[in-house]
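Structure tokens please, single chain.
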Amino acid sequence: MSDLNKICNVLDKLTLDALTLIEEEVQMKLNIENAMCGGEMHLAKSRYILGQNSVSSLQLPTENSPHFEATVTVHSEKDELIGEKTRYLEVVKREDQIDPVRWFGYLVPQDLYHAQTMFRQALQWVIRATNLQMQLIETCGTIEQLKELKRKLSIH
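Here you go.
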């Protein structure tokens, strides 16, 4: 099998991989959209139950609020062997940490907790979609390099 045939076979495989990654990324984006819409719906229900001013941006921390730290942080790792970055979520648990739902009171409707769960799920899907996008960019870069190599081999 010649080098040109080998490159064509690898290009075919990488193109199929790219299409699979595109499909997975589209599915992740649909999942994100559904989770965000569901979370927003639960927020609207909570706002209806508690009243217009009970669930609003007025309850969110401002610059003058006491300091608080995020409950979830995003980290990235670079694989030295492949050169690929992956991102993951780290959930931080501390004893003194207050659940952000408590910013809206102590007797809040279950819909507020459901909204929180849906937004957290959306965040996980955003990270997965980002990782898929990075894989897709790397795969497309490899495809372009192989196409250039194929052109050079075809000329000779």
